[in-house]
User: Fold this.
Amino acid sequence: MIKLSQIRKLYDTQEALRNVDLQIEDGECVVLIGPSGCGKSSLLKSINRMIDIDAGTITFFNQDIQSLPVEQLRRKIGYCIQGVGLFPHMNVKENIAILLRILKWKEEDIERRVDELLLMSELPLTYKTKKPHELSGGEAQRVGVCRALATDPPVLLMDEPFGALDPMTREKIQIAFRDIAQKLHKTVVFVTHDIEEAILLGDRIALMNEGQIVQLSTPEALIQDQKENFTKNFIGQDYPLMVLKRFSVRDLKLKPISNLNVTHRIDLDTNLKEALALCIKQTEAVIFKDEQNTYSLVYSDIFSFIRGMQDETAH
Amino acid sequence: MKDRIRRGLSLILFMTLLFLPMGFFKVNRVLNGSVFSLWKIEYAWILVLFALISTIRLKHRTIAYLRSLFLILLPSILIYVSQSYVIAEPFDVKVARISLGPSIYFACIGAWVLLSTEAKGSLKIFISLCVLITLFGFGYFPMLGFYKEYINRQATFFLELQRHMSLAVTSLLFALVPGIYLGYQSTRHPRLREWIMGFVNGFQVAPTLSMLALLMIPLASLGQSFPFLRTWGVKGVGFLPAFIVLSLYALLPITSNTYTAFKQLDPSVMDSAKALGMSSKHIFRKVSFPLALPFIITGIRIAFIQNIGNTILAGLVGGGGMGSLIFLGLAQSATDLILLGSLPVVLMALGFEVILEFTELRLKKKMGVLYDQA
Assistant:
C-alpha cells in the first residue's frame, strides 16, 4: 500500500503539486490523467524519489520512503518510461538481467527468470541476444516492462510508457500489460494523457489539474458523477461509449441458445464497444459461437447491461 | 561525377611529368643541383603514356586489374627510374645524389587519387605505400639523396624515431587520467566546467614554442637550485620541458571529448538506470562509462595524432625526436634531411589516424551508439 499525504512540490516558485493526498491499495491500478503540466508525472516520480518533494509524506508499505535507502526503495518499484531507456550496448537478456547481476543471482536462475519474463510478455526467446536497436517500438517497450519486473517488485510505476507507439501496437500491449499486472497482482500507478488508455487499464482514475487531484473515481462512476466542469470537458461527451471498452461480451452473461446459423466471428472476449458497433451495422441479432455454445446478441442486451452498471454505481 | 573530377585531377597531375622538373642532380650534398626532366631519361615517356591512358574509364576486368597493379607500382617505378639519370660529367657515386622534383610528387598523388576511385581504394593506396617503403628499406633507391641521408644516419634515425614515439606516447598517457577526470568532473559540476575548460583551452591558445620558452626559465632555475633534481632530468632543455608541454596540449581534446561524451548520454537511459535502483558506482561502471567510451577514445585519437606532429618541436629544446633531424636539415639547408625527418611523422600520423578511427567505429557499433548512422 502506498499512501501519499499533503504532497507539495515547487519548481522555482511554480507550484507543481499542491497538497495532494492519494492512497493506493495493493493490487490496484491507479491511473493519473490530466493535461500536460498538471503534475501527474511529478507525482509519479516522487514515489520512487526520482524527484524530491518539498513537503508531505509518502509511506510505502507503512514505511516512510525517506527512511529507506533510495536504492533499496527503487529496487522494490519497477519503473517504465516512454523512451523505454534500454541500455543500447547490452542485448535484451543483459538489459533484463542487469539488476539480477548486481544482486549476484546465479547464472541459471537469471536464465530461468529472463525466459519466464519473455514468455509472459509474448516475446520469442531468440530475442535474448538482440540489441535494443534491432527491436520495434512495441518490442522494446515489452522488454522495458520485463526489465522493470525482473526482481518481481510489488509496485510498478508507468510514465506514459505506450505514448509513442502506433495505435494498433498500443492496444495490444495495453491489454497484455493489464493481464500481466492482474495475474501477478501488481500495484500499478500509471500516468497517461489518453483517456481511453485510462479507462482500459485503471481500477480508479485520478483526474489531475493544476497540481491537484480534481476527481478520483472508478471509470464506471465517472459516467454519472462529473463533479466539475473541468472533468466534463476533459473526458469528453463520448466518455460513456469509451467505457464500454472495459467490458467484454462475457460480462453480459448471455444465455446459450439452440443452434442457429452463425452470422459473426466474434467471441466472448470481444469488447462491448466493438459488439455495439456490430449491432449498429446489423438489423437482426448477431449470432456467434464459442467452443461449446451458440449465442445471440442484440442492442438491448448491451443497453440493459449499461443500466445495471449505472444502478450499481449509484448505490 | 565525383569520380570524373578525381580522374581529371589525376590527368592534370600526371601531365606535370611532361613539363615540370622530374628531379635535381647534385654532385654532392652541398652544391646546388641541376634540374632534369623526364625527357632526359630514355623511354620514361612510355610510363607517362601509360599513366595518362590509365585515367580513362574502363570496364574490362583484366585491364582494370592491370591498371590497379600499374597504379600501385607507379610511385615506386617513377622514383626508381629517375635514378637512372646519368650525365656525362664525372662524379663520385658515393656523394652524388638525386632529389625528387615536383612532378614525381604530383604523379604519386595522381596515382593515389586515381586508386581512390577504385573498389577498396584505401587498401590499394596502403599497399602502394607499403611497396614504396619496403623497396626503400631494401635499398632499391641508392641514388636518392633521401636514401643517402638515411644511410648516413641510420642509427640516429631509428633512435630518434623511437624517442619521437616514446615522447608522443608517454606524454599522451600522462594526460590521459587527468584529461578524463577533468572532463568527467565538468559534466557533474557545471560551475567547475568554465574553469576547467578555460584552463585546458589556455594551453591550446598559447603557441607551443612560447610555452617551451616559458617553461625553460622555471625548470632551469629549479634544476640549478636543487642539483639532485638535475640528475633526474629537471633542466631547461631536454626531455622534460617537451614532455610537460605535450601533455598539457593533449589535455584539451581529451577533456572536451570526455565532457561531450558524458553530456550526450541519452537521459532516458540514465533515468531508467537510476530508477532500477543502481548505485551511482554501478551506473558509472555499467552504463555511463561504457556508453561514453567510444567518444572518449575519439578525444584520445585526436590528442595522439596532434601529439605526433607537435613532438617535432621537442627537437628545438633538445628533447630529441624527428624534430632534431628536421632542424638539423634546416640549419644545413639539406632538403633531403628535412624530408627524412618529416615524412615518417606524416606517415605515422596518417597510419595511426586510420587504425584508431577504424577501432573507434567498431567500438561504437558494438556499443550500439552508432546504429542510426550505420
Remarks:
- The longest strand of chain B covers residues 23-26.
- Chain B touches chain A at residues 266-279, 282, 286-287, 290-291, 366-369, 371-372 (CB under 8 Å).
- Strands of chain B lie at 23-26, 34-36, 97-100.
- Chain B has a mean pLDDT of 86.
